[in-house]
Amino acid sequence: MSIVGNTYLSLKDKMAQTQSGRMAGAIVDLLSQSSVIIEDAVVRECNEGSTHKTTVRNGLPDVEFRKFYQGVSASKGEYTQITDTTGMLEVYSQVDKALADLEGDMRQFRANEAQAFLESMNNTVQENIFYGSKATNPAGFDGLSVRYDKISTDPKSIGYRVLDGGGKASNNTSIWFITWGDLHTHLLYPKGSQMGFVHEDKGPQTATDALGNMFEVYRDHYKWDIGLTVRDFRSTARVANIDVTKLDGADAADLIKLMVSAYHRIKRFAKTGKTVIYCNETIETYLHFQAINKANVNLTMDNIAGKPVVTFLGLPVKCADQIRNDEKQVK
């Protein structure tokens, strides 16, 4: 289990490699400014077009000692084959051509004007990483909450990586320990595409206003094909059922204890990946208060890449605004 560092190329890194030019650079920067996931997530190309087949190990093969001149029995590991899909997210943005032409750097101006569209795409992607469900939106992809949706005491099950914060109603939130890596949790992009993200400069176009009158615009098309797979469910964990109305008081969830439990349930399986803790602003603020309490040795304030970051047992704690405060109870 390692902290975010230089040993892995994130989605942002790979986007920067595949996109070229000042406009593309500005787009990558804008995307990373509105998403913590893009800075951390590892991404892989699908192995079957827009879908990805992978095998999840359910058990280890049997091994045995042997004597000289004596064989051993054949054995194999236990696997389940999983097929994950990518979703296709698209948007068009346009700016008045006359206004853009007045700017000294027209391309940068257009990128700046597209910021709201890019932020909306980012928010949608990040929300679906946590809550996406093909059952409710067949065009999207299944997120983490669909997979880590039950609590179990069986150490071999995915539900063992879901810890119960005690909340009963529908004003709960979660803390996620996500381990990114090729053998762990990673994002997907369609085979043969430019990391799934495409920006197309449509150039000057004729648009119409609300009254049907025509005017000239510069139009841009943004397309992001993206999905998610969990290769090894044992290296990611969820602290669920955290009642945000009871963070303090006698009946408050012991978040530090729950986070220690989550850490140890994934620790030995996460060694080859990079683990990041995600929560929303409500929980991040609470943990920040805990971090400045000198009695809390597990939570500290550290400096990572020149930025002050709350860390838990050496793992960075990051704020993902899309993690909700109205989650239903996970059982």
- Strand fraction equals 25-35%
Q: Would you tell me the overall average pLDDT?
A: 83
SSE order, one letter for each helix or strand: HHHEEEHHHHEEEEEEHEHEEE
Work out the number of β strands. 13
For the sheet with most strands, the description reads: 7 strands, mixed
Query: What class do helices, strands and sheet pairing give?
Result: alpha+beta
Low-pLDDT runs of 5+ residues are none
| Backbone shape | globular
Radius of gyration: 23 Å
**Tally of individual helices:** 9
Helix share, percent: 10-25%
**Order of strands across the biggest sheet?**
4-9-5-10-13-12-11
Distance between the termini: 28 Å
Overview of the molecule:
This protein has 331 residues and is of the alpha+beta class. The protein has helices at residues 11-18, 22-33, 37-40, 97-101, 106-113, 115-131, 144-147, 255-266, 281-291; strands spanning 43-45, 51-59, 78-96, 162-164, 172-180, 185-189, 197-208, 214-230, 237-243, 274-279, 299-304, 307-312, 315-319. The strands form two sheets. Strands 4-9-5-10-13-12-11 form a seven-stranded mixed beta sheet, with helices on one face. Helix 2 runs parallel beside helix 5 (106-113).
Task: Give a concise summary.
The protein is of the alpha+beta class and 331 residues long. The chain has 9 helices and 13 strands. Strands 4-9-5-10-13-12-11 form a 7-stranded mixed β-sheet, covered by helices on one side.
Defining traits:
alpha+beta; single chain; about 325 residues; 6-stranded mixed sheet
